[in-house]
Automatic annotation (TrEMBL):
DNA-binding found in the keyword field: no
Co-factor note (free text): Binds 1 zinc ion per subunit.
Region (Disordered): 522-543
InterPro entries: Astacin-like_dom, ConA-like_dom_sf, MAM_dom, MAM_domain-containing, MetalloPept_cat_dom_sf, Peptidase_M12A, Peptidase_Metallo, TSP1_rpt
Protein species of origin: Pocillopora meandrina
Name the UniProt record assigns to this protein: Metalloendopeptidase
Active site positions: 136
The EC number(s) this enzyme carries: 3.4.24.-
Cofactor(s) needed for function: Zn(2+)
Annotated GO MF terms: metalloendopeptidase activity; zinc ion binding
Compositional bias ranges of the Pro residues kind: 527-538
Gene Ontology biological process terms in this record: proteolysis
Keywords: Disulfide bond, Glycoprotein, Hydrolase, Metal-binding, Metalloprotease, Protease, Signal, Zinc, Zymogen
Domain of life assignment: Eukaryota
Length: 712
């Protein structure tokens, strides 16, 4: 769960399950089969709850000495005020909770019913907060994290690509055999929900709400209404308090077509509950009805695979990832999963023009650079898009010029970083006597900007010197700097940031290049000109259309494109010159220097936002590599530009090949795509344009061509 919500640094134990859960070994389950063991680990079984609705507790001396006792009492008061679960100081109970100070904030889930003695709730450094204590106490009385629910994919999206490698299991979901939803809806505001950037490797969201990514997820302020309702339902707070609780609902049908319900003894004296087992539980198992046993089960997607390798070794290409409809598979006539089993993304590798020491921080990561200390604050991060604080940091990277989904590195100055704190990143080792002209781009916006320095440090520790330095705010723009670096002994280059007076002090770096000093110093051109070479053979065209003849050639609008009551369809239309609306669309075509034709989607009509217009090609043969060439234009003077997608279609099924969204500037952009044709069978191409938020979102195409062989 998210605990970086306070000004103090939180002590985290990184190896805990889901960040703050202790999975205690349960010898009582060693003889169970897999299905039973899964059920025994579930808090659906009431064996894990504190059956008398009372949780005895102790507080360690160290927590009392450090002022945690008041925080714990405030959390207890919330349970007393809103639920029937009572936390009381331990007297002589066999099982109890001890609040201790260990490494991190954590707890077991439910009562450790199989062993007598104490179980721990740890409130480590930075955990002295009422909401954190309440979160761990909810674990202790039997609650998992909210996003572990099996139905979570209807409400939130997991951004697997942003999750720290090795931490993906913290986002597993569990079916209704393990988790009892207690008839409550999914609650993004629960005190048991992860925050948006939990376990993030890059500061970007790892989980976000579907429909509105800006929705706040989780909080550590207090119980939500749903939290209160679930506690009171789990502990049958409306039922008796000195005998049997009410029966739970029957759980799901198992593989033998049977289901179970339970009740617990709400009395310390098991004699008040005839039929109770030694743990105070009574179970009732029945055969499911045929209607329930063979009820249709709809399929749900499993998580995406890792991205494939990029299709190119440098510059821009594409990569793919896949998923399977197996969580669960459709059963008994249930619906198949909705959507594609393959996704195509854009990958940005090192620029083909870059030298061996140059770095743009794209898919090559940090190249030869290394962060000095990733366990202290302030810290350097590799990042894309704006930084997390307002009034500081760039809107995006420098390389792309648009800031769209490209990376740079930045110095995060937000809490828990302190004024004067430093951190750095450093280069590979350069040989003695080597001389390089170092060029880089920096961004220093914010009233709290501290200082950025470039240092040369000798590898033997004999010397270090500052060769470039800049302090204070430098404006909301990327600026270029150059400096010569050299030493008579092996050396490394360091970039060091110093945190200023407050959080508005994010410093960003991008596009670092090294050129040999001797190359910079050359003044005369070579005496001999390089020999000329013949241009490569033009690949044969399977189809080509420049729309200059006044027709769509072999392309047709999809018959299901949206149609208004007045008969106006959201179709791709022929056009020459500019489009009817100002501040969107091209001034003319591309292939005939503004004198010919092109096609476009007119956003000035009354069609609503997200209306989609599709253009379909003729059928092309499969069996060999093919390349799609085209020019596109996506210009809008204001925010609200839509999207352009390219698909391969076979029958009714489509596979996404390319996607662009947002304003790309008032210019034509050339694109080639190596088409991925599953099974090498005949296929069609589909261009799909999606209307943006306003009537200033015209999308245009020109010069569409299909050629044999891979793109060159």
């Amino acid at each position: 769960f998210l605990i970086f919500v306070f000004a103090t640094e939180v002590d985290i134990e990184p190896n805990l399950f889901e960040g703050d859960i202790v999975l205690s070994p349960n010898p009582d389950e060693s003889s169970l089969n897999d299905q039973e063991r899964e059920k025994r680990n579930a808090q659906r079984l009431r064996r894990y709850i504190w059956t008398a609705k009372i949780v005895p507790y102790e507080i360690s001396d160290i927590l009392k000495q450090e002022g945690y006792e008041q925080t714990i009492q405030e959390a207890i008061n919330q349970f007393t005020q809103h639920t029937c679960v009572k936390w009381k100081p331990r007297e002589n109970e066999e099982r109890w909770v001890t609040f201790e100070k260990q490494s991190g904030c954590f707890s077991s889930v439910g009562m450790n019913y199989w062993v007598t003695g104490s179980q721990t709730i740890s409130l480590g450094s930075g955990c002295n907060h009422r909401g954190v204590a309440m979160h761990e106490m909810m674990h202790a009385i039997g609650f998992w994290h909210e996003q572990s629910r099996y139905d979570r994919d209807q409400y939130v999206e997991i951004m697997w690509e942003n999750i720290e490698p090795g931490k993906e299991h913290n986002f597993n979901k569990y079916d209704t055999v393990r988790i009892d939803y207690l008839n409550e809806v999914y609650d993004t505001g629960s005190i048991m929900h992860y925050g948006k950037t939990s376990f993030s490797i890059n500061g970007q969201p790892t989980i976000q709400a579907i429909g509105d990514p800006n929705t706040k997820l989780g909080q550590r302020d207090g119980f939500s209404k749903t939290d209160i309702a679930q506690i009171n339902a789990l502990y049958d707070c409306s039922g008796p308090s000195n005998g049997w609780s009410s029966w739970t609902d029957f759980g799901p049908c198992n593989g033998q077509c049977r289901h179970t319900r339970q009740r617990f003894c709400a009395s310390h004296d098991l004699n008040n509950c005839p039929g109770a087992d030694s743990y105070g539980i009574q179970s009732q198992t029945e055969q499911c009805s045929d209607e329930k046993c063979y009820a249709p089960i709809d399929g749900h997607w499993g998580k995406w695979s890792s991205w494939s390798s990029c299709s190119v070794s440098c510059d821009e290409g594409t990569y793919t990832r896949t998923r399977q409809c197996n969580e669960p598979q459709p059963k008994n006539g249930g619906k198949d999963c909705d959507g594609d089993d393959e996704q195509v993304g854009e990958c940005v590798m090192r620029g083909c023009h870059l030298g061996p020491y140059d770095c743009e921080f794209e898919m090559g990561g940090l190249c030869h650079w290394t962060f000095c200390d990733t366990n202290k604050y302030p810290r350097w991060y590799r990042h894309d898009g704006p930084t997390g604080s307002s009034g500081t940091g760039p809107a995006g990277d420098h390389t792309s010029g648009s800031g769209k989904a490209r990376n740079y590195i930045y110095f995060e100055s937000s809490s828990p970083a302190q004024t004067g704190g430093t951190n750095c990143f450093y280069s590979q080792l350069f040989s003695a006597g080597s001389c390089h002209s170092l060029t880089f781009w920096y961004h220093m916006l914010g009233s709290g900007i501290g200082k950025l320095s470039v240092l040369v440090k000798n590898n033997d520790g004999s010397d270090q010197r500052i060769v470039w330095e800049k302090s204070g705010e430098q404006g909301n723009e990327w600026k270029q700097a150059s400096v010569e670096v050299t030493s008579s002994v092996p050396y490394q280059v360091y970039f060091e940031g110093v945190r200023g007076v407050d959080f508005r002090g994010d410093i960003a770096i991008d596009d670092i290049t090294f050129k040999d000093c001797s190359v910079i110093a050359t003044t005369s051109p070579p005496a001999t000109q390089p020999p000329t070479t013949s241009p490569p053979t033009e690949p044969s065209a399977l189809d080509s259309c420049d729309f200059d003849s006044g027709s769509l050639c072999d392309w047709t609008n999809h018959p299901d494109n949206p149609e208004l009551p007045n008969g106006q369809r959201y179709d791709w239309m022929l056009r020459s010159g500019d489009t009817p609306s100002q501040n969107t669309g091209p001034a003319g075509d591309k292939t005939a220097n503004g004198q010919g034709g092109y096609i476009y989607l007119d956003s000035s009509t009354e069609h609503v936002k997200a209306s989609k217009g599709a253009l379909i090609s003729k059928e092309f043969p499969g069996g060999s590599p093919t390349c799609l060439h085209f020019w596109y234009h996506m210009y809008a003077s204001k925010k609200g530009m839509g999207q352009l997608r390219v698909f391969v279609q076979k029958g009714a099924k489509r596979w996404l090949q390319y996607r662009k969204a947002g304003n790309k500037g008032n210019n034509w952009i050339y694109k080639t795509i190596n088409l991925r044709n599953k099974n090498k069978t005949p296929f069609k191409i589909v261009f799909e344009g999606e209307r943006g938020r306003t009537g200033k979102s015209d999308v245009a195409l020109d010069g569409i061509k299909m050629t044999n062989g891979p793109c060159q």
